């Protein structure tokens, strides 16, 4: 009697690769400590509007939020009825044009309590939806000039994931927010998870921060290898920079401080550029063009 044939797809097999290519990707951001200038949460809102996301699920707010800290709001409906909207974390789903899988978008305030239960519930959704990868967006305050490109860093918890998406292996030690906790929970159950962070100038941290939001979306384009329609964001980012510059020019001390940040940032950029090869620059440019010419190499897809 012959032995049964094991047809289970294995990592690296073409069948497994095709199966993984159809699984959804989760992108999330949380308001609060992880969201300087509201840059990350507004990136999620942009994706929801751009790709017409539909509601999928929401978490029970009583379990995770202190309503004296994250207060509910009252809104008018049709100018007649008042409705209470409770702060909570909501999931929605969309299918970007030219993309071969769904994106699950997650947004809400950073929870005030029961972080471990909160992360476990998010991971349950990840597993139920058969999510192949989790991408967390965040923004932090930093000593960076508003007149220069927004520094964007990406981190992963293992070398393979970091290498695949050209990110750094996280070596940060210190206090963390819900993004760091949730990323660790995902990794512990075998779900690849990365985070992308934009640096917001600490002297102009009041939201909105469209330039940082735009930088996050550009990096997300690179990770997903798909074009994200940007709408009016580039114009808003330019107007924001001009407004901040005008305000800085009115204060000599602030102007001098901004100049010192520019000089330091330019020196660091020059040093970095000396280490970047021409082949790497050409490869990145080719990837950028491919996103703007869908269909010429089999369509978009996660690398």
The major β-sheet equals:
8 strands, mixed
Strand line-up of the largest beta sheet = 2-5-6-1-7-10-8-9
Q: What is the name of the CATH class?
A: Alpha Beta
- Helix/strand/pairing class, anyone? alpha/beta
Which consecutive residue ranges, at least 5 long each, have pLDDT under 50? 1-11, 270-285, 294-303
Shape: globular
Order of helical and strand elements: HEHEEEEEHEEHEHEHHHH
Question: What is the CATH superfamily label?
Answer: PAC-like subunit
Question: What is the averaged pLDDT score?
Answer: 84
Number of β-strand runs:
10
What's the number of helices? 9
Count of domains: 1
CATH architecture annotation: 3-Layer(aba) Sandwich
N→C terminal distance: 43 Å
Helical content band:
40-55%
Roughly how many Å is the radius of gyration? 21 Å
Strand content: 15-25%
CATH topology: Rossmann fold
